[in-house]
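Tutorial, part two.
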Amino acid sequence: MKEIITILTLLFTLFLGSGFAQSPDIDDRLLVQFSQEELETMDKQELAFHTYCIENAFQVMPFPKEKAGDAAINGARNIKDLSTINFFELNITLKQDEYQYFTLLGTDKMLMIKPITLIKQEL
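Running the prediction step on this input gives:
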């Protein structure tokens, strides 16, 4: 009988411990940019900010013809599927107060990257 209680206690402890190790609040798409350890040690605000950025740090919009050759365009990106963009796969560093613009190769669209200040307001 003691063996059964010991085994059940051990299994319960292992089950409980693994539940804490795998936080359901961490979006796996963040692993493109951060290690699991980095994500687990982030405070809630920082984690919420980065999670929000996955799908909301940018906007895809029509490319205005008058912007062709404009120096305000920061470059170009080739994105296969515009409906499943993960911001952290774009390899773009957010700027504090500046929007960034990229042409989307093979399309008549552009990618607008929001500044950190705007993203924080949206949260």
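Residues 10-22 have pLDDT under 50 and may be disordered. In part three we will examine how such features are distributed along the chain.
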